[in-house]
């Protein structure tokens, strides 16, 4: 029997949903702060200061550091990946133009596979042309400032949560859209290099992957 011991009294200060690394899925959580006390036979005697905050999983009851909340939930991650694929497809189409039916079909197939089930070639073409009109950008031109910003906004939050193979897969998917109607144009290479940089893929690996995408599997 422990006569003297340190006990922590936890107080909830917030809640929400997070990806629990212990459970391996999305769970509810409570954010807790605690006060440590020295107890004698279970009776609190002296304050030993505060501790926490911590995140407690509502399912497994394990405690984690608050940095666990930086990891997106499964639902949030799926939405981030879906939006990233959509943005990348638009960027590649803007670089190559929307006159190629095969490129539009390849882009639409990639976007549908990412989660936009109803995406059509006509919708993508209309979006690309609307973006060009809004920014004053010429279709088929190099990746401008506005498009570069959009790519970074979509890819910067996602990249840290993708394994290297996942980041490379996203770039290869973009490369195949560009190659659907023939060899890379300079504007397409520029857009793909911007995608690679936003995915934190080094320039040498971007060159390697773009060359690999040209080789039939």
Automatic annotation (TrEMBL):
Domain of life of the native organism: Bacteria
Domain Co-chaperone DjlA N-terminal: 84-208
A Pfam cross-reference name: TerB
InterPro entries: DjlA_N, TerB-like
UniProt-listed Gene3D superfamilies: TerB-like
The name this protein goes by in its record: Co-chaperone DjlA N-terminal domain-containing protein
Organism: Streptomyces roseochromogenus subsp. oscitans DS 12.976
């Amino acid at each position: 029997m422990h006569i003297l011991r340190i006990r922590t009294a936890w107080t909830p200060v917030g809640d929400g949903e997070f990806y629990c690394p212990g459970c391996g899925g999305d769970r509810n959580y409570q954010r807790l702060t605690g006060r440590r006390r020295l107890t004698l036979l279970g009776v609190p005697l002296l304050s030993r200061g505060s501790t926490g905050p911590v995140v407690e999983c509502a399912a497994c009851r394990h405690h984690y550091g608050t940095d666990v909340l930086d990891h997106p939930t499964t639902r949030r991650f799926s939405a981030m990946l879906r939006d990233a694929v959509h943005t990348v497809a638009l960027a590649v189409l803007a670089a190559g133009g929307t006159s190629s039916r095969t490129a539009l079909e390849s882009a639409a197939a990639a976007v549908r596979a990412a989660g936009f089930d109803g995406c059509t070639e006509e919708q993508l073409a209309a979006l690309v042309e609307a973006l060009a009109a809004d920014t004053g950008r010429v279709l088929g031109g190099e990746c401008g400032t506005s498009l570069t910003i959009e790519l970074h906004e979509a890819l910067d939050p996602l990249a840290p949560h993708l394994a290297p193979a996942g980041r490379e897969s996203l770039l290869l998917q973009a490369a195949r859209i560009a190659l659907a109607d023939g060899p890379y144009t300079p504007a397409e290479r520029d857009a793909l290099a911007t995608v690679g940089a936003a995915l934190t893929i080094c320039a040498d690996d971007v060159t390697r992957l773009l060359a690999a995408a040209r080789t039939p599997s």
